[in-house]
């Protein structure tokens, strides 16, 4: 009886997925390039000038990255907070590494007072060695990927993924420039979606799944696992767009915007909706709650994790420099820390909206139709927004 019920649920879910795919394909239309907001003119620093001569020389590269990571000392105010002390020790000793799967010999005294998600995050000791369940080894053939869309998704978000595939995330070539898509997944806590996930991947060939619990505080881990995958499987991608599965992206316009970049900006880009002076949430009711005993001080400048773009050439160095950045449970803040370790800060772009902005502070150049990326969109809204974009773009 139980087997029959499971079989019935699986068949129903598969039929639902197929129905969603058909519906999305019916709704689907192509957009055009539209008028773009101005590109920021301030050139970012280019760490590749320092690092690229040492490529392939691991000892020299790691020593150089350790020296560069001393940029993080600007965050380290004097306190007894856990993260601050760990980071201070890491920067003081070239023999230490973060992300080694080793648990602390001196556990936090007040660990039990922390919310359960933060407890679990701390207990796993900064490990990023997890089995890759579903791989896409042929996602970036011949190093011809211009923009890789790396979208964070939860296993159960079938409708969101299908909406992305059928709208702005469709893999295609815009004016000779190839766009590829992967979704980043862990394993759902307490539920087994594996039959449906395997079926979905058999149809779409765009899922990356690792054997770790897909939770909010593990988004930092998801980012790290993706960087490790990308440096091996998609090392030639010129740009990477990291985002959530509830953003709407005007992909052809972002492609065109990126083609307008010049000089070293093409290799040292970290662009999005910038938060320049954020502080940790100290309210225990917030899902972003970070106790003072864990982290003291302000956050580095960072681009909102809902969606940002960075240069693909930075991928291996972001992965390696994180050996000198103690894991932090807020993913976009941790990304900002890693870029700071490379001596970079994010470039703000008015076309990226990943946070709600008070009306009087909104960028005057950007009506909703001129935004390149918007957050918090349902699958239905994605399809409606995509279908309203007029005419066609040039594609291969």
Automatic annotation (TrEMBL):
InterPro entries: Glyco_trans_31 (IPR002659)
TM segment ranges: 7-24
Pathway stated in the Swiss-Prot or TrEMBL entry: Protein modification; protein glycosylation
EC top class named in words: transferase
Membrane topology per record: Single-pass type II membrane protein
Keywords in alphabetical order: Glycoprotein, Glycosyltransferase, Golgi apparatus, Membrane, Signal-anchor, Transferase, Transmembrane, Transmembrane helix
Catalyzed chemical reaction(s): a beta-D-Gal-(1->4)-beta-D-Glc-(1<->1)-Cer(d18:1(4E)) + UDP-N-acetyl-alpha-D-glucosamine = a beta-D-GlcNAc-(1->3)-beta-D-Gal-(1->4)-beta-D-Glc-(1<->1)-Cer(d18:1(4E)) + UDP + H(+); a neolactoside nLc4Cer(d18:1(4E)) + UDP-N-acetyl-alpha-D-glucosamine = a neolactoside IV(3)-beta-GlcNAc-nLc4Cer(d18:1(4E)) + UDP + H(+)
Localization annotation: Golgi apparatus membrane
Gene Ontology biological-process entries: poly-N-acetyllactosamine biosynthetic process; protein O-linked glycosylation; sphingolipid biosynthetic process
Enzyme Commission number(s) from the entry: 2.4.1.-
One GO cellular component term noted in the UniProt record for this chain: Golgi membrane
Primary localisation category: Golgi
GO molecular function: lactosylceramide 1,3-N-acetyl-beta-D-glucosaminyltransferase activity; protein N-acetylglucosaminyltransferase activity
Superkingdom field: Eukaryota
Job description of the protein: Beta-1,3-N-acetylglucosaminyltransferase that plays a key role in the synthesis of lacto- or neolacto-series carbohydrate chains on glycolipids.
Record-stated family: Belongs to the glycosyltransferase 31 family.
The protein's name in its UniProt record: Hexosyltransferase
Organism: Xenopus tropicalis (Western clawed frog)
């Amino acid at each position: 009886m139980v087997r029959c019920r499971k079989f019935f649920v699986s068949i129903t879910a598969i039929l639902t997925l197929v129905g969603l795919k058909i519906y999305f394909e019916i709704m689907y239309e192509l957009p055009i390039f539209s008028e773009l907001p101005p590109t920021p003119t301030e050139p970012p620093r280019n760490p590749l000038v320092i690092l690229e001569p040492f490529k392939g020389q691991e000892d020299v590269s790691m020593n150089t990255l350790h020296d560069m990571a001393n940029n993080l000392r600007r965050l380290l105010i004097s306190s007894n907070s856990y993260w601050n002390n760990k980071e201070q020790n890491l920067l003081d000793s070239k023999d230490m590494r973060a992300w080694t799967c080793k648990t602390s010999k001196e556990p936090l005294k007040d660990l039990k007072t922390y919310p359960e998600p933060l407890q679990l995050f701390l207990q796993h000791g900064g490990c990023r060695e997890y089995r890759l369940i579903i791989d896409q080894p042929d996602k970036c053939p011949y190093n011809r990927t211009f923009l890789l869309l790396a979208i964070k998704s939860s296993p159960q978000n079938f409708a969101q993924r299908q909406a992305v595939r059928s709208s702005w995330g469709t893999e295609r070539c815009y004016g000779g420039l190839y766009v590829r898509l992967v979704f980043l997944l862990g394993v759902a806590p307490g539920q087994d979606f594996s039959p449906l996930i395997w079926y979905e991947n058999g149809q779409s060939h765009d899922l990356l799944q690792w054997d770790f619990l897909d939770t909010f505080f593990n988004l930092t881990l998801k980012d790290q696992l993706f960087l490790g995958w990308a440096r091996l499987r998609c090392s030639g991608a010129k740009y990477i767009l990291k985002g959530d599965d509830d953003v709407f992206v005007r992909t052809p316009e972002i492609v065109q915007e990126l083609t307008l970049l010049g000089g070293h900006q093409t290799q040292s880009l970290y662009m999005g909706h910038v938060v320049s002076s954020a502080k940790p949430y100290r309210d225990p009711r917030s899902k972003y709650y970070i106790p003072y005993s864990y982290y003291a001080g302000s956050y580095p400048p960072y681009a909102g994790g809902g969606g940002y773009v960075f240069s693909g050439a930075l991928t291996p160095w972001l992965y390696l420099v994180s050996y000198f950045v103690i894991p932090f449970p807020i993913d976009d803040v941790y990304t900002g820390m890693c870029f700071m370790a490379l001596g970079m800060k994010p470039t703000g772009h008015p076309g990226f909206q990943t946070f709600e902005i008070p009306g009087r502070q909104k960028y005057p150049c950007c009506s909703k139709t001129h935004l390149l990326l918007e957050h918090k969109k349902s699958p239905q809204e994605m399809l409606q927004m995509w279908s309203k974009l007029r005419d066609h773009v040039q594609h291969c």
